[in-house]
UniProtKB/TrEMBL annotation:
GO molecular function: glycerophosphodiester phosphodiesterase activity
GO biological processes: glycerol metabolic process; lipid metabolic process
Domain GP-PDE: from-to ranges: 46-364
Protein encoded by which gene: GPDL3
Annotated protein name in UniProt: glycerophosphodiester phosphodiesterase
Lineage of source species: Eukaryota, Viridiplantae, Streptophyta, Embryophyta, Tracheophyta
Keywords attached to this entry: Glycerol metabolism, Glycoprotein, Hydrolase, Signal
Family as reported in the entry's similarity comment: Belongs to the glycerophosphoryl diester phosphodiesterase family.
Organism: Apostasia shenzhenica
Catalytic reactions of this protein: a sn-glycero-3-phosphodiester + H2O = an alcohol + sn-glycerol 3-phosphate + H(+)
Length: 393
């Protein structure tokens, strides 16, 4: 009996760690990751933006994905913000829960599958806006891509915007956040807040609550760096009235129109439009294939988008860099370092959204080490340069 009881206790304990229901996850908090000082955000090389956390390794937008990204050297952790039925802001990319959670296994929710119009198209699934926070916390995340590690499926919860912020703030160095106002038209249609508040208001309120404020590179910003991103220009213009935090205007594929203003790619990347939007945003976040269009999986000549953005003092943060062969254009002979070298040195971007923060960080530590030439990677780089210059000589 005693053995049974203690076995039962150990199993509950293990499960609790697994599911995080003790409020303390079993993985290390960023403050325990061993950074020696509260180092500031680096500003001397392009930003390493951990797209949905280190989602190349862990299920996207979960606490472990963000912890891992911080450990691997992310400058910013990136997330998509949506809202629950009861108005809680959540980190989740899709408006449906089908592709990155185990909702299909939850019989109690079978009747909630439905069809809504999203960006002009009918979509069927379990929509996040139909579930309360309490219900969402019973779900477990899973890896989106079949070719990535499946061992963490079923282990981690979806997290709230506030939990996401806590992870960044718990790091023992300055780690910025890069949240997206996701599908604002859809969210405002389905979720209602008191006092006529909109999704955008709740989004900014959350940032302000945690001390995120101030213009790019201001004292406040350097303490708690944030970039606010959206594909919806009206949301960015709207919030520019209430926060001076820097904003990034996301730009989709050439065939996709803006959700809110129904503008074409040609329109929003015109000189005229860049002159307008530069009053509200500090940069653009284009899909990388629109900057350098590929043909037959080879990159062709770069467009002048980066030059025209830089001429207006707009930063350029393209998305998304992924290590796997199926995402790498043939020019890079299956080497993600070659891709980073091209985008950083030939194209001259100011930040990169990557699924593999560790790879980008190691590339940057090799090419432009953070702690100068005496760091381990700095010395290796020096040796490599000596070897290559003696070869040339
Ligand atoms: C979505 O489905 C509804 C109901 O069948 C239909 O009335 C509407 O036209 C559809 N919308 C689109 C964009 O296909
Ligand atoms: C910004 O605030 C001003 C003053 O309250 C208001 O007149 C204007 O419509 C607002 N702009 C946007 C885009 O909401
Ligand atoms: C967007 O504009 C195109 C071209 O004028 C039009 O065909 C389409 O119906 C518009 N979409 C919406 C949602 O208004």
């Amino acid at each position: 009996m005693r053995n049974m009881a203690s076995l039962w206790f150990v199993s509950v304990l293990l499960n609790s760690f697994f599911w995080g229901s003790f409020g303390r996850p079993f993985y290390p908090l960023p403050s325990q990751l061993g950074y020696k000082d509260h180092a500031p955000l680096q500003l001397f090389r392009p930003f390493n933006i951990a797209h949905r956390g280190s989602n190349g390794e862990f299920p996207e937008e979960t606490a472990p994905a963000y912890m891992r990204a911080i450990k691997e050297g992310a400058d910013f952790i990136e997330t998509d913000i949506l809202a629950t039925k009861d108005g809680v802001l959540m980190c989740h990319h899709d408006v449906v829960l089908d592709y990155t959670t185990d909702i299909a296994n939850h019989k109690e929710f079978a009747g909630r599958r439905t069809t809504y119009e999203v960006q002009g198209q009918n979509m069927t699934g379990w929509f996040i806006v139909d579930f309360t926070l309490e219900e969402l916390k019973t779900l477990r995340a899973k890896q989106r891509y079949s070719f990535r590690d499946q061992q963490y499926n079923g282990k981690f919860q979806i997290i709230t915007f506030e939990e996401f912020i806590s992870i960044a703030l718990a790091a023992n160095r300055v780690v910025g956040i890069y949240p997206e106002i996701k599908n604002p038209i859809f969210v405002n249609r389905h979720v209602k807040w008191s006092n006529g508040k909109k999704f955008e208001d709740k989004f900014v309120e959350t940032l302000v609550k945690y001390g995120y404020k101030g213009a790019y590179k201001s004292k406040d910003w350097l303490k708690k760096p944030v970039f606010i991103q959206s594909f919806a220009p009206t949301s960015l213009v709207y919030i520019s009235n209430v926060t001076d935090s820097p904003k990034i205007f996301l730009i989709d594929d050439v065939t996709v129109r803006t959700d809110d203003t129904n503008q074409t790619y040609e329109d929003i990347t015109s000189d005229h439009y860049l002159d307008y939007i530069k009053e509200y945003v500090i940069g653009i976040g284009p899909w990388k294939d629109t900057v350098v269009p590929p043909v037959n999986n080879y990159l062709t000549t770069a467009t002048d988008l980066v030059a025209r953005a830089h001429a207006r003092n707009l930063q350029v943060h393209p998305y998304t860099y992924r290590n796997e062969n199926q995402f790498l254009h043939f020019n890079f002979h299956q080497d993600p370092y070659d891709e980073y070298d091209y985008w950083i040195n030939a194209i001259g971007v100011d930040g990169l959204f990557t699924d593999f923060t560790g790879s980008l960080h190691q590339y940057q530590e090799w090419a432009t080490p953070a702690y100068g030439k005496n760091s381990a990677s700095g010395i290796l780089h020096k040796i490599a340069s000596l070897i290559s210059s003696s070869k040339q000589g």
